[in-house]
Specification:
Elements (H helix, E strand, L loop, with lengths): L3 H5 L15 E11 L2 E12 L3 E5 L6 H8 L6 E6 L2 E2 L5 H6 L2 E4 L11 H9 L5 H5 L7 H10 L14 H13 L5 E5 L7 H15 L3 E5 L3 H7 L2 E6 L2 E6 L1 H6 L1 H8 L2 H10 L10
Parallel strand pairs: 3-8, 3-9, 6-7, 7-8
Antiparallel strand pairs: 1-2, 1-4, 4-5, 9-10
Helix pairs in contact: 4-7, 6-7, 11-12
Length: 281
Amino acid sequence: MSDTESAAGREPTAGGNVGMGSEYLEVRGLTVDFDGFKAVSGVDLTLLQGDLRFLIGPNGAGKTTVIDAITGLVSATGSVRKSGVELLGKKVHQIARRGVGRTFQTASVFEELTVLQNLDIAAGAGRSPWTLLRRRHGVLPAIEEALEVTGLSGLVDKPAGVLAHGQKQWLEIGMLLVQNADVLLLDEPVAGMSHEEREETGALLRRIGGERTVVVVEHDMDFMRAFATSVTVLARGQVIAEGSVAEVQANPKVQEVYLGTAAAGAAAAQDAPAELIEENS
């Protein structure tokens, strides 16, 4: 993991700012079948380090199922390769140890423990139980960096249960950072947040996204337009569009999915392109 200054000095860019020579995630033909119902069908994604990719689509489009499949929570066919290593078929903890981390719509933190203790447990995910019980002398550099990056440095001794909703999400992201996750899959990270929390979360994603692969499943279209460097649109378990925010908003298939008819969407696009995919989101 790079130091804080380096991470903060590089912004995510469309298509990634590092490329295939470094960490990347390549998804090919990803299919999830639930008793004959194809929740995800033939999804292809190439996610490069330094991109801040948003995954959007109507309810039931298969967005969360895609990241469930990538992280081993549901069985899938096809291929998911992280920097050339096949992940599909591996167990959840094996995928996590490969540097692929995810968050859930409800933050998974230990509410009775402090912020520091949560991060310390996450940092010790690969250590033995006896090692975890030993008293620590000082704070690990990786934890100090995560506290600074997430803006939680002043809350180290606060129980996680008393944190604001947004702060719990930031803590969960911090817990992934101290595990050296370089592919982060975030499921609706700003759901239920205030406007100020959304803005701070977007700034956090930019800080961590410059040198990592970050995928955000999101329904908040204003948030997507403000912070995405690239967008993938799913509908009925399939990818229907991919590109910049402007490109997907102008895509007739996207307009049809969100507005009901491509013709109506195309007409509206000339007058109010920013609002096109906000309806029915």
